[in-house]
Amino acid sequence: MVQILTRKFFEVLFFMLFITFVSFLFVRLAPGDPVLTILNVDELSVSQEQVEALREEMGFNKPLLVQYGLWLFKFIQLDFGESYTTGQPVIDMIIIGLPATIELTIGSLIVMLIVSVPLGSLAALYRNSWIDQVSRFLSILGAAVPSFWLGLIFIDLFGVRLNWLPTMGRDGFISLILPSLTLGLAISSVYVRLLRSSLLDSLSQEFIRAARTRGLSERRIFFVHAFRHSLPPVITVFGVSLGSLIGGVVVIEVLFAYPGIGKLVVDAIRQRDYPLIQGYILIMAIIVFIVNTCVDLSYRYLNPEMKLKERRTN
What we know:
Blueprint: H1 2-29, H2 34-39, H3 48-57, H4 64-76, H5 90-125, H6 130-144, H7 147-161, H8 174-203, H9 206-213, H10 218-240, H11 242-255, H12 261-270, H13 274-302, H14 304-313
Helix pairs in contact: 1-13, 5-6, 5-8, 5-13, 6-8, 7-8, 7-11, 8-10, 8-11, 9-10, 10-13, 11-12, 12-13, 13-14
């Protein structure tokens, strides 16, 4: 465990240096000029001297590497800078919007588990039956339907026609239902098929046959042995697809006007708000890195073979 944590520590250092440079470079090379956005040149006539003066004040006249070095020095001090449009500290704006994004993410994952675990398990238990056929059809249909289109259907049906659920804003649990249902159903199709194939592979292993010969019940064999053995591939795909999940959260937040950091960064991109964009990229990258680290560590619990390999190497 100490070796793993030490290796992860150096990985974090390299990862943070790499992601800070890449995010800074990509944001600076994006089209548009934040100086012109701040001065509102479309609505107010400004001189070139005013533009250059503001550019110098904001440090945009310095070489790119110098700008990165100054920004990195502030970042080491946990100073993400201030928003160009609101003047508020970026970290405060992210902290305010992060709970809403976390709520939406957790709600979507709960919907995904409620849908994918029963469907994937039943499809594996009753292979080639009508349950399996329906499960595969629904998973293919879910993969083919974009999440934003599904969200529009839900808004029209449950919000406009039936008037059962709110379609905009964040006003308690009821406002979380439609966005969570939209994103959760959109991502569950992948995990239904993956869990089905992983369970079928587990049920064909030698240790399952050995458990049956020892007289264990089919329920215990499935839930204690086969299901646990099938989880590592599912968790691996979850760690890899976490970036796609975050991207889906951004789309759903904009669609339902949900006040999370996804909607916040979309507004920041429109306004060329560099500090807020960079802060969002870094926070999301850190979250993805932490989740993937937890995924790696969970293998030691879910897959006892890894523990045996570590003991043999040591």
